[in-house]
Amino acid sequence: MGETLAEHTWAVLCRVADLARLRPGLPQFLGLPRLWHLLFWAAFLHDWGKVASGFQSALRGRSRWDHRHEVLSLAFLDWFGAAFEGEEATWVAAGVGMHHKNMSELQSLYPAGLAPEDDPIGDLVKELHREDAEGLWRWGAHVVAAWVDQLGLDSVGIRIPELPSVGDAVSQTLAARAARIRHWMQQSYRLVRDMENGGDRHLRIWMLLLRGYLIQSDYTASAHQETLVPPEFRPGRILGASHISPGALYGHQEEAGQVVGSCLLIAPTGSGKTESALLWAARQWQVRGAVPRVFYTLPYQASMNAMYDRLQKVFPGQVGLLHGRSALALYRRFMDQGYAPDEATRLARALRNWAGIHVPPVRVFSPYHMLKAAYQLKGYEAMLADYAQAAFIFDEIHAYEPARLAMILETMRFLRENLGASFFVMTATMPTPVRRHVEEALGSFSAICAPPEVFRAFTRHRLYLVAGNLLGDSGLDAIANAFREGQSVLVTFNTVARAQEAYRALKARIPEAPPEQVILIHGRFNGRDRLAKERAITNAVSVGRVGRNPVLVISTQVVEVSLNIDLDTIFTDPAPLEALVQRFGRVNRKRRLASAPVHVFTEPADGQGVYDPRLVQGALRVLGAHKQGSPIDEGAIQGWLDIVYQDEVLEDWEREYHRVSREFRAAFLDRLRPFSADSGIEDAFNRLFDGLEVLPVSLRAEYARLREERPLEAAELLVPIGWRRWLGLKGEKRVLTPPNEWPPVIDAQYSSETGLEFAK
């Protein structure tokens, strides 16, 4: 059922009131005391042009309408001129006139310099009738004050101007309406051009937020979202959901719960860093009185899905999940709860959209989602507005190579300096150059490092450096023997092809093993099979599980931060030291055993096209100096990292970091301004960060059937691949569908047992 203009405007203003309550200190931080005042009037006026007779006819399905209602809304701005000072009326005009379309789009619809008889604005204003204008005047003169009072907005600085008399207002508007619309459009265009040419940095931020909050208020009102609520981060609630008593907290957890402002935490894997971060967020909430939004960032979809489940137990119904497959992840959760497929689809899409329009007070996403704002993809102003004064939790910051890390940290710096965001960065391992740049991005911050006794208490691994290749007979025999002895064994390779080869070889060595106990997992499974494998692994060896069944898990580095599992031993390809430490963290995670053996093979040491070979070889040198079979002191790992990151390795790392940091800041962050969404760059962004999803030809028939019956389940059949691999398939003419057909079908083997394989 439709709603009236007044009903929609009221809903939009309710969301404006919510935003003011969520961020009471934002106007002072920005140096724009009248922020909420300007937003209120932009929101109040933004849809007035919908009274146009052509729009109303189109709304009822009677005819097509080729004009823009927001342009006609500008005809009424002069009535409220007494509400504004200096350039404020132009700012509001830009917000109203361009809250849907950018300047370039409006200029093509309403070109400047035309004769009055050729100006399409002349045709537009003919659709405004006296009785409608008089009704709008009565609304602005007699109703708006009561609305401000009812919403409590007088306390945040909303001021009501005295309007001209109804006769003067309506007559002047009808007489000069085209000229005044054109005036405000030209003023708005001048404002945008000034910002494009650099302009005042503060003004660019103000206008980014003004448009962002107007869009957010409009979209959430249109979605009939009742209230934008703040997260309630009560320490007792956090500890209760985690089954931790206050007296059982580690010192670094207690310390994190007292920090005000940004924080850097270094503590062993499994020592409660997540609880530390949530207690930090609770402290910000206590001290500031309001934390508008909390964002939990992780590098991989599997770890995001797991964190979503974990946070839902702490904040039920208040957590959003945002990544390329979040609708699928949510769909599976509803199916597991017994919902019918159609209802599960509806609910999953609704929750995905709910998160996409910035409603949930707690959200889980990747740092790459944040970078969409820097790249000025569609909706970027609303993203940035939502980040203002928010609290961000960054987990596994070590997982990013220097180029992407540079973009992430520069974005953090921008959000801190310009929007008042605060950050909690936590990791178990952090090379000194990474730490130095993290600290620069954080600005003023508190550093917490778990004390030596905690690191000593988390000594849980014995190191064995094994000469040779993990795919050699001796390596495969050692794995098979450990599994036969009843151990749960993790085997980690750097490439999918090596993992697939090992899986076949190990299945042949232990034919007696039940299929459900030998599991291959990597990044080239489709969503359906990947989820089934993750569940099988966690059901067998999740942290804290009683009655464990031995499993043999053959994996790639997807296990490093994605699964909360606890195995008995690991055999791994050589890799950079920080990656190896993360792999070790899946073994004896909560010190269930006195100590557990971890086996690192020495070949191949060339990085296999995945890692910088110098980092792999440096890790092997450091580990080679460690006594065979002796415990790994978690507190010594930082020193090991610093041995690896020196001389040429450090110089090259720093050179790449500074190059990307400088270029990203100059090309994107320094050029951020409103009204400039760049749809043409979205494909480039996806190539850089998201890769591509393809459909193996063997799944084509099943996809076609599911697309008609259960479309989200059809999407589960797609397999992610990297952009370089995609270009290779195109060059080999193994892409079977036309360029514009979705999904792209490829000529490659696929099975639920081994995943996607490219060899013919």
In brief, what are we looking at here?
The chain is α/β, with parallel strands linked by helices. Strands 3-4-2-5-6-1-7 form a seven-stranded parallel β-sheet, sandwiched between helices. A six-stranded parallel β-sheet has the order 8-13-12-9-11-10, sandwiched between helices. Strands 15-14-16 form a three-stranded mixed β-sheet.
What name is given to the CATH topology of the largest domain? Hypothetical protein af1432
Can you tell me the CATH architecture of the largest domain? Orthogonal Bundle
Largest sheet: 7 strands, parallel
Total helix count? 34
Shape: elongated
Strand content: 5-15%
Fraction of residues in H or I helices: 40-55%
* Structural category: alpha/beta
Main-sheet strand order equals 3-4-2-5-6-1-7
- Rg (C-alpha, Å): 29 Å
Domain tally: 4
Mean pLDDT: 90
CATH class of the largest domain: Mainly Alpha
Query: Unreliable segments (pLDDT under 50, ≥5 consecutive)?
Result: none
Description:
- The chain is an alpha/beta fold and 760 residues long.
- Helices cover 52% and strands 11% of the residues.
- It has four domains: 5-222, Orthogonal Bundle (Hypothetical protein af1432); 256-454, P-loop containing nucleotide triphosphate hydrolases (Rossmann fold); 460-632, Rossmann fold (3-Layer(aba) Sandwich); 691-757, no CATH class.
- The chain is built from 34 helices and 18 strands.
- The strands form four sheets. A seven-stranded parallel sheet has the order 3-4-2-5-6-1-7, with helices on both faces. A six-stranded parallel sheet has the order 8-13-12-9-11-10, sandwiched between helices.
- β5 (391-395), α20 (402-419) and β6 form a beta-alpha-beta unit.
- α1 (5-22) runs antiparallel to α3 (35-45).
- The longest helix is centred in the first third of the chain and has 31 residues, at 166-196.
- The two termini are 56 Å apart.
- 48% of the residues are buried.
